[in-house]
Structure formats: C-alpha cells, structure tokens
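Researcher: Here's the sequence for the chain we discussed earlier.
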Amino acid sequence: MRSPSGVRTWSFRISLLWVAEMAEQRNCIYCHEPFTVNKYSPRQKVCSRPACQHERQIESMRQWRQRNPNYFKYDLAAKGQEWINTQRERSRLWRERHPEKIKAYRQSHMDKYRQYMREYMRRYRQRKKETPAAPSPSPQPTSSGGTGESSPLSPPQ
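Model: Thanks. This is the structure I predict for it:
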C-alpha cells in the first residue's frame, strides 16, 4: 500500500521488523547482555557499549603482547648496539627540536612526572651508593719520600 505521496509505509516497516527478527541475537562476553550481531561482522562477540568495546580492545592488546613479547624491547642480539645508539640519538634530537612538547607533557602529567622522577632519582642514588667509586690512580710514594718519578733536577735513583 502506498501513501498519498507515493511512498510505501506499512510494507517497508514490516520488512524492517522481519530483518530485525531474523538477525542473530547473542550475549556479550563482557556484560552478558543480548545484542544483535552486525551482519557485516558475523564473528562479533561483543556488544557496542563503550565499556565492553574498551574491554575488548584491552584484551586484544594483551593477547598481541603475549604473541609478540620482544616487540618493544631493545634486542641487542637481533638489532645490535649500533641500532640502539641510533634510536637514542634520534630521540635526543627530537627532544631538542621540540622542547615545548616535553614541557607541555610534563605540565599536563605533573603528578605522574614528579612520582617518576622521585623513583628514578631514588634508584639512581641507590645504585651510586652501592657501586664503590673506583680509586683514582695516584703515584706510589717511595722510601725516599718522593713519588717514584725522577724530575730533571733530581739525580736518578
């Protein structure tokens, strides 16, 4: 049946209801609420609620990191010391070129930054305290009271 404007109304509504009824319903694996599976994503297991999507993303990242444990680590055996030095140099140069970004980041994360620096300096001081300073090589005194080195003015021993 068509409306006076020539648009189908009731048959269109019925077809939409039929499609909705035929769509598969599943329970979300996080909130356990029923949801309609997207017809373009037949493997969908999570509803569209932001909290559930966030959990799905976190879980996905965790699984990826388990499959790729060394991706974010400096691997000396595979990449070599030269690669690490190059990366450090690139980072240093970037920080020198963008001091405003570092300053803005520190301002926006002041509490975390302060805590990080406290911990960092605590570890640094602890390492410095545990590692004895290497004694500087000093000339050994001789029995004559000199340093063991002959000067041009003193007679050789």
